[in-house]
Amino acid sequence: MDRRSAIRNLAFVMGSAALLPYCTPGKPTAHFTHFDVNLDQQNLVADLAETIIPKTTSPGARDLELDKFVWLMVDDCAKKDEQEAFFKGLGEFNDLVKKSYNKNFSDCTKDEKATLLNTFEKKPSQKNLTPTDEKYSKELRGFYGTVHWLTVFGYTESKYFMTREIVWELVPGRYNAYFPVKNLKAAKNG
């Protein structure tokens, strides 16, 4: 064997070894400080966030990458036991979807997704539920609540929302010198 073919074969073997972890299913695809997340878990949270804030005339959760924000906040701000409860709730949510519709959350229609998520939302008349009245586990409700809250929080703190939806002005804001005198008199008498 000549030197060129040996180097070429060695490069091929090393390149294959480097790509092998990315080709095997079930292996972690995103590495965080305290946990690893596989592709199915990433897709579930991304689809859930997109269902909470869908794309309309404004960007949705996928466009703003709010699923990455959720993972980062869970990694940075949650304690170890809270992270374990989050992952347990994620698994229970996945099981609930498969039990209800015999398919993954991403394969469900918009109506099926909305129906499922509406079961987690408390109605105003149901605010004082006792733990026995609720049909979902604490971990499952915690998972949904965390994803819902972080998705909405991430959206309201995003660059898009702060620059396009709410025009921010430095305090004290704009001076408006026009104020009708008749309204001033009514304000003093009231």
Can you tell me the number of structural domains? 1
* Number of beta-strand segments: 2
User: What is the structural class?
Assistant: mainly alpha
Q: Rg, please?
A: 25 Å
- Gross morphology: extended
Strand content: under 5%
Order of helices and strands: HEEHHHHHHH
Helix content: 55-70%
**How many helices does DSSP assign?**
8
Low-confidence spans: none
- Largest beta sheet: strand ordering: 1-2
Q: Give average pLDDT, whole number.
A: 82
Largest sheet: 2 strands, antiparallel
Q: Termini, distance in Å?
A: 100 Å
In short:
59% of the residues lie in helices and 2% in strands. With 190 residues, the protein is mainly α. It has a two-stranded antiparallel sheet with strand order 1-2.
Features of the shown structure:
single chain; 190 residues; mainly alpha; two-stranded antiparallel sheet; 8 helices; 59% helix; 2% strand
Helix-strand blueprint:
Blueprint: H1 3-23, E1 30-31, E2 36-37, H2 39-52, H3 66-77, H4 80-101, H5 110-118, H6 138-156, H7 159-165, H8 181-189
Antiparallel strand pairs: 1-2
Helix pairs in contact: 2-3, 2-6, 3-6, 4-6
Describe the fold and architecture.
The chain is mostly helical and 190 residues long. The chain is built from 8 helices and 2 strands, in the order H-E-E-H-H-H-H-H-H-H. A hairpin with a 4-residue loop joins strand 1 and strand 2. The chain is extended, with a radius of gyration of 25 Å. The mean pLDDT is 82.
